[in-house]
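Q: Given only this backbone (226 positions), what sequence would you predict?
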């Protein structure tokens, strides 16, 4: 844990694994986050997040599964699929969990892979700020607003991971906001360095009550299926 804002969390540690697979007709991803949080009473709480998606390469179709657990109890779960009428067009998300419902998606909504592509394209074009509607299926609230600050873009530099050494990189700061209103405070913030191939490292995750830093410890290519 990098810092705490005086809440109930006094310590936190954990690991995150992220996998991207070219599934020929789309991108299949899985992210697993495991954290141990120590509260003010000295109790350790195990928190696990398991998130899996499939996104068509044209960015118009999306399937999602998200399950969060505290110790052995499931605290939240979302499942469903979403479609856009066309790239950049409006669409809808259809949930099967936590309950059956449909949410309208505004024009301009991006799914996660296209969201990353838009950030990298903005950095290449010299932009400093982006406002991008995002739907990722991590909760049942539909699309959210994302605010992206592009801090800098650097030429290729030496890296301990050979597949990154020839690529430029971009430092960014992202803030996510509930579209249903609120006090203008982000629900979540994250800073990172994006490499040109979409790999992210040097994470700083702001959960509100506490902030965690993360550094990439392993990077390996997966066998190609297509």
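A: Predicted residues:
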């Amino acid at each position: 844990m990098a810092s705490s804002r005086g809440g109930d969390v006094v310590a936190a540690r954990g690991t995150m694994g992220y996998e991207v697979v070219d599934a020929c007709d789309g991108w299949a991803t899985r992210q697993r986050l495991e954290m141990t949080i120590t509260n003010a009473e000295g109790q350790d709480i195990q928190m696990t997040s398991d998130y899996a998606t499939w996104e068509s390469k044209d960015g118009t179709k999306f399937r999602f599964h998200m399950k969060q657990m505290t110790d052995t109890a499931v605290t939240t779960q979302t499942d469903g699929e979403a479609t856009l009428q066309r790239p950049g067009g409006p669409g809808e998300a259809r949930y099967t969990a936590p309950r059956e419902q449909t949410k309208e998606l505004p024009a301009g909504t991006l799914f996660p892979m296209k969201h990353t592509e838009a950030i990298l394209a903005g950095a290449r074009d010299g932009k400093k700020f982006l406002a991008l509607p995002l739907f990722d299926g991590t909760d049942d609230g539909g699309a959210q607003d994302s605010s992206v600050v592009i801090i800098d873009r650097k030429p290729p530099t030496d890296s301990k991971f050979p597949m990154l050494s020839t690529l430029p990189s971009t430092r960014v700061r992202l803030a996510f906001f509930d579209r249903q209103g609120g006090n203008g405070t982000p629900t979540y913030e994250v800073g990172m360095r994006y490499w040109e191939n979409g790999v992210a490292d040097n994470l700083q995750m702001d959960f509100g009550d506490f902030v965690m830093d993360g550094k990439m410890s392993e990077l390996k290519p997966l066998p190609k299926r297509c």
